Amino acid sequence: MKERVTALIIAKPGQMRDGLRALLRAIPGVDVVDRPCDGVPNTDLLAEHHPALILVDCRVADTRTPGALRQLKTQNPGACFLILVEDVEQRQLAQDTGFEHVLIKGSSAEKLAKTVRELLPQETETRRSE
To answer: pTM here?
Structure first.
């Protein structure tokens, strides 16, 4: 049996976090770690769960302070990141920090779901088709 993968949501309490949680829970083989936070989570949380996918709402890890995102990426070199930003300027800052997967909030739910599925490890894809 293939291993399950963990997805970590870094977002403040509210509709954004609730929507991300619902989206991830609808994908077979994905365990969701969802903790309300007002900043980048501590290394203990990340080390405990070893997330394969980390979704970051820019309101928590302010993309105008690239150091916080850079540190998160350094601590989790094996994880795939999806950064959700407010505007084109924040998208550029996140990309300049080294994040390849950045979506502007307000993108369709279908686009967000497709992006998340594409970023999940292959074993989850295989399990969905079984």
So the answer is: 0.80
Does domain 5-124 fall into CATH 3.40.50.2300? yes
Per the CB < 8 A criterion, the answer to whether 9 and 2 are in contact is no
Where b means 16+ CB within 10 Å and e means fewer, 84-99 reads: bbeeeebbebbeebeb
Query: What's the confidence (pLDDT) of residue 58?
Result: 80
User: Rounded to 5 degrees, what angle do the CA atoms 116, 7, 92 make?
Assistant: 55
Average pLDDT over residues 77-100: 87
In 3D space, the residue among 75, 77, 91, 79 whose CA is nearest the CA of residue 40 turns out to be 75
Answer whether residue 39 shows pLDDT above 80: no
